[in-house]
Write the structure tokens for this entry.
Amino acid sequence: MAKPIGLEINGKRYAVQSAPETPLLYVLRDELGLTGTKYGCGEGQCGACTVLLGGAPRRSCQIPLSAAASRSITTIEGLEKDGHLHPVQQAFLDAGAFQCAYCTPGMILSSVGLLSTNPNPSSAEIIQTLQGNLCRCGTYPRILEAVQKAAKMMPGRAR
Amino acid sequence: MSSSVTFVPEPERYEFSAGPMHHFELARRDFFKFLGAGIAVFAVAKKARAAQETAPTLGFHFEELPENITAWLHIGEDGNVTAFTGKVEIGQNIRTSLAQTVADELRVGFECVTMVTADTALTPFDFGTVGSRSMPTMSPQLRRVASAARDLLVDAAAKEWNVAADGLTAANGKVSDPATGRSLRYGELARGKTLAQNLPTEDPVTPPDKWTIAGKSIPKKDGRAFVTGEHQYTPDLRRTGMLYGKVLRPPSFGATLTMYDAQAAQAMPGVVVLRDGDFVAAAAGNERDAQKAVEAIRTEWKEVPQPSSEELFSYLKQNAKPGSDERSRHIKGSVENGLAAAAHRLDATYTVAFIAHAPLEPRAALAEWSAGKLTVWTGSQRPFAVRDELANAFHVPEGSVRVIVPDMGSAYGGKHTGDAALEAARLARAAGRPVKVVWTREEEFTWAYFRPAGVMEVKSGIAADGTLTAWEFHNYNSGMSAIETPYDVANQHIEFHSTECPLRSGSYRGLAATANFFARESHMDALARTAQIDSLEFRLKNLSDPRLRAIFEAAAKSFGWPRQKSKEGHGFGIAGGHEKGGYVATCAEVAVDRATGTVRVVQLTTAFECGAIVNPDGLRNQVIGANVQGLGGALFEAIAFENGRITNPHFASYRVPRFRDVPEVEAVLLDRKDIPSAGAGETPIMGVAPAISNAIFDATGTRLRDLPMTPNGILPAKVLSQ
């Protein structure tokens, strides 16, 4: 049996037995049941598996478990606090910024990551950040609108 | 070269096949056991109703489409309403719009209505969520059911109060007696009852101008579960003891297994290895172990030579089957005479490539056998067809198979089949445990089916004043949807030719209409230029269909057609048509950069009319999404293949629209309350490619007749050398 690897996800500690090279995505989904993080391509091309690693958006299909150890990980399940949606989640909901919504968790986490370092991004900066996140339903205009709304909802938010 | 691998072409398969006879096996008392006491109303197929006059039990026989599409709903003792439909939510927002329809007709709050969808054990037979049929067929059924349920409730109240029913009103989830001011909530009226009734007559339903809940922009049902990650798509499901399955794919299409050695894989702990004919697969406790097991299986395959994408269009022409489908054939007047009389003749050939649906949720299924019965959760647009595929494959009665479709990570016409369901079920039977199979992106790009490629040949003539005199149109392989011309032409010859198809092909959002619109509307633009008439004016000159004229005019007005060129390299195009009860016109502005060889779509304005609008915000979302998706097929999507292999099976090599590709997109919606609602998932995509093509011509003077127009993102040399 491999030595357990410690993870800190959404503020909780976990010890997992998976091989150190296992992509974080599979650990989250299959070992820990955190299925809000989606498989879309396994190649870092679609952004559906985006999580925050140390606060920065990363493709969890490209991160070996060993590289995620002892770093703070945030998944879509960790954004809601005390029954209140994160402003980015709320903005996506308010803007109806999805159709099938399979890309939504990844879009939201990429946007949360952006707003944490750039609270007032321009449209071009949002587009630049989300270029790696695919929405096959084509809801991009509404996603842009949602991120702009979220930025307005978040002034002075402690980060 | 003739291929020895031929795929049964699946274009527009739902138009070709007929539904089988089906049994619904839930007994009446089980139904109420499942839902609790209350009032239930069932819409039964007309033909079936004759045999069902007496008993409101659930032993319905369903006939084929469209009569067999039926629905039911239940009103519980708590006043909550549950409506059942075999339709599937794939992001098109059907769960919300059908719930609006039910709430509207039943006069209850939207939040009181729960839709149970796409579960072969609970919902009525449904041919599939295909062809933009949900709104025109399911919505009226549910309305009639809800209307009948409302009558039952009013009758129940009348009986309770011992008054005449026609003086009572139903609103806000209760029946009231205006004479006395008393009222009873639906839940109170349903209390203690197990009343089930077949839909009695053609009940009148509420016309669109009287809608109160339908017609409003109500947000997506369960929207919150999608932004929290709580909603579980098929790949997110798990069962106790579940294994993960992987399939060993052949090296090329049509390859047959000649050597198989699974010793090494079988020696792996916890691994189940399976061979059944040419189907080779493994299951293990996690996905990576299953993958390792599959990689440890040694196989050799006999391959067959096959054509490549380089020779695709000559292949399609050379392998056309003799004759043509008579349903596609529209012959009127004499094209020969029309051409002879023409002042100008214009002939051209257009092509479209194979493209992939690439739904972000790949094909997936979780299968579980228990006491000879099979339950499969899978992402499919046709749960009942998948149930039949499974029943046939495993030689079990269809009543022993239950297919459940969780709301899906999209499909776009790409999930009509049950491939992953069959694979998971076969592995689960071998393993004796539940097995989940989730396709990789590469599998999705390779082993799913494609939107068929096609060749469209047009011959045409116009009189000196721009009147169309002749229109001859042949479509090879891509299909017959929207193959007719909506323009007034006295002399027409229109025909679809099926051919041997080098890749497995099937439905795609809009089917062949995108290809046929592309050829027709590009050609119309070319004719307008030949006649030296504005492209919109030329269309209107040859068009009498008032709905299509109105939609062209709406798009043009909003876009500001005709626009004067303000910037170097910019151009404008217009295109439109109708299909599946929806009328669409799109105006495009493009910016061509000759130095880089790139095209940027600056703006798309799409006007759309599909009768009475059920949910304006949902419709706007669909129209804008279709425009964005349409950009991909117009500009850069193309499946490349060689000798039975897909050579670009990744998002890195198969380019789909991303954020930077997105233009300003405007949706102009016309609400026709006097016309029944049609579907909206498909038609808004159809004008995008020709509008862009026409705008590129306007900008460059070169006509691009092949989709995609900028393979690899770069314009063809012929444009740049102009």
In short: Chain B touches chain A through 56 residues (CB under 8 Å).
